[in-house]
Amino acid sequence: MLNPSFFTYAGTQQFSKTYSKKKDNGLPLPGNNQTVTETSNKFNVLAYEFSMPLIFAKEKWMFLLSPSYILPQNLAFVAGRPDLSEKGESTLYATAGIKYSF
After folding, report:
1. Is 50 helix (H, G, I), strand (E, B) or coil?
2. 66: closest CA among 79, 80, 55?
3. What mean pLDDT comes out for the span 47-55?
4. Is 59 left (phi over 0), alpha (psi -120 to 50) or beta?
C-alpha cells in the first residue's frame, strides 16, 4: 500500500536586533550614544516535507518504510556572522519498522 503525503510546517519567528545610535542633542559631548533594540515577529513557512510511506503486510507481519524529503524555508541569517546563521539543508531520510500482530 502506498500513501503519499505532503506537509507544510509553519510558525512564528521572533527576531531582535540591538545596536548603538548616536544621540544628537546639538552639543559636541562624548558619550551621547543610546542602545536601541528592535524586535519583530513574522509568521512564515518553515519547511515543506514530502513522504511516501510503504506498507507491506503478510499474514500477521507488517513491514513499514517511510522515506521523506524535507526542504527548509526562511532560515535565519545574520549578516557577517555565519556562526549565528541557520545552516538548514534539504534532507532525505527514512524510518523503518516491523510490526507483528498477536
Report:
1. strand
2. 55
3. 94
4. left
Burial group, residue 74, by CB count within 10 angstroms (0-12, 13-18, 19+): middle
User: For residue 29, what pLDDT band results from cuts at 50, 70 and 90?
Assistant: low
Task: Give the Cβ contact number of residue 52 at 10 Å.
Answer: 14
pTM of the model: 0.66
CA-CA distance, 81 to 71, in Å (whole number)?
23
Residue 82: which pLDDT band, with cuts at 50, 70 and 90?
confident
Measured at the CA of 75, the angle between CA 95 and CA 14, to 5 degrees, comes to 110
> 41 has which bridge partners?
14
- pLDDT tens, 68-81? 999 999 888 888 88
Beta strands in 23-84 (DSSP E): 33-51, 54-58, 61-72
